[in-house]
Each structure stands twice: as structure tokens, then as C-alpha cells.
Amino acid sequence: MSNITVYFRYFKDQEIRESENIKISKYLPKYMKIGFSILLEEKVIDMDDYILCPLYHNEIQVGVTGGIKEKEESKAACARELGEEVGLVPISLNDLIPVVKTENKRECTCYALHIGRTSPVLKSEHKESINKEFPDTRNKVGCFVHGNVSSILAHMCQSEIYMYFSEDRIIGVGMVPVIDIIRLIKDGYFGL
């Protein structure tokens, strides 16, 4: 995993840091790996793009993932998870580009979303609980928010990043180059 430069920011401050030493989580579910490959093949995600990622206790998770709640549509679940994990939501649910993979009798949907088609979570929505009254289902959703360095840095450099309520203990956001994610997948780095 050496020589991967990751840019990240803690929520508590506005400084963008660059490091080759921050750990990349081995968590990338099978449906996300398959979805990532398809999105690359179909040229939805460019080779020179970066992926916006949540930062958990000094470990970057590639992409946003989560569960779909009862009475929640897949795209709505994806929008909620994006708001909980990276502080962005799609301008329209139709901006989410889907790749569906069903495994183990559950639906797992991977999406791509260009950062130019997002809006930040508003201050008035900060720590707001979205659909928490509904229990989780076994169905999963994930998303790769992608764009060039400057477009993702524009989000990361905001004075404040507001997020929906989450129990995930996310402490910041980061970005990882697509080309390095491809290499990690080919090298079998991700465990799931």
C-alpha cells in the first residue's frame, strides 16, 4: 500500500493534510468492487479522478456504504448515507448512476455520483436524524463520489462540513486517487 498519497481533513479544523502514511481500510464489499470496475469500464469514473471518502479514526474507507432502511428506496438510502458520511447529497436522486449486484438473497446497489452534481448538507440539517425510526434491512447501498482534485478539494476546504446524524464516528473526509484504488483491487488488498 505504499506510495499512495491521500489528502484528508479532520472536521475539527480546516487544514487539508497530505500523507502517504494514513491507513486505507480493507473494507470494500464485493458489490462495491464489482460496481467500481463496471463504472470504470463504462467511463462513468475517469482514471484521473479522485474518490471522496469518509475518515474513521485515521483510516480512510474507500467510498460510502451503508444499509437500506425499511420503507426506504435505494437512491434515498444512498443520499442519506452520503449526508451522514461525507456531508453531501445529490442535487437530484436521478444524478445517482446505479450499478446493481444482488448477492446472498439481498440487494446491494453501488452508485456513482459526480461531485459537481452534489449539494452540501445545510447547517440547519446538521446532526439531523434521517429515517432513524425505521429498522435496517439486509439490503446495502454504496456510492463513489468522484471528481477532479480541485472539485473535491472545494468541498473539503469549506469552513464547516455539516452532516446528518450518524453513529459511525466519522472524524473527517479524504480523497483517494482512482488509479490507486484500481491497483489496490488488482493486488487483492481489500478483504471482503
Set down the secondary structure blueprint:
Layout: E1 6-10, E2 17-19, E3 23-24, H1 30-41, E4 50-56, E5 59-60, E6 64-69, H2 74-85, E7 88-90, E8 97-103, E9 106-114, E10 118-120, E11 136-147, H3 149-156, E12 170-177, H4 178-186
Question: Gist?
Answer:
The protein has 192 residues and is of the alpha+beta class. It has helices at residues 30-41, 74-85, 149-156, 178-186, and strands at residues 6-10, 17-19, 23-24, 50-56, 59-60, 64-69, 88-90, 97-103, 106-114, 118-120, 136-147, 170-177. It has one domain (23-186).
Structural description of this entry:
With 192 residues, the protein is of the alpha+beta class. It has one domain (23-186). Helices cover 21% and strands 35% of the residues. The chain is built from four helices and twelve strands. The strands form two sheets. Strands 1, 2, 3, 4, 5, 6, 8, 9, 11 and 12 form a ten-stranded mixed sheet that branches. A hairpin with a 2-residue loop joins β8 (97-103) and β9 (106-114). The longest helix is centred in the N-terminal third of the chain and has 12 residues, at 30-41. The two termini are 17 Å apart. The model has no long low-confidence stretch (mean pLDDT 91).
Q: Number of helical segments?
A: 4
Domain module count = 1
N-to-C series of helices and strands = EEEHEEEHEEEEEHEH
> Which spans of ≥5 residues are poorly predicted at pLDDT below 50?
none
The count of β-strands is 12
The portion of residues assigned to helices is 10-25%
Span between N and C termini?
17 Å
Overall geometry comes to globular
- Estimated share of beta-strand residues: 25-35%
The protein's oligomeric status is single chain
The largest β sheet comes out as:
10 strands, mixed
- Determine Rg (CA atoms, Å): 15 Å
Mean pLDDT: 91
Structural class: alpha+beta
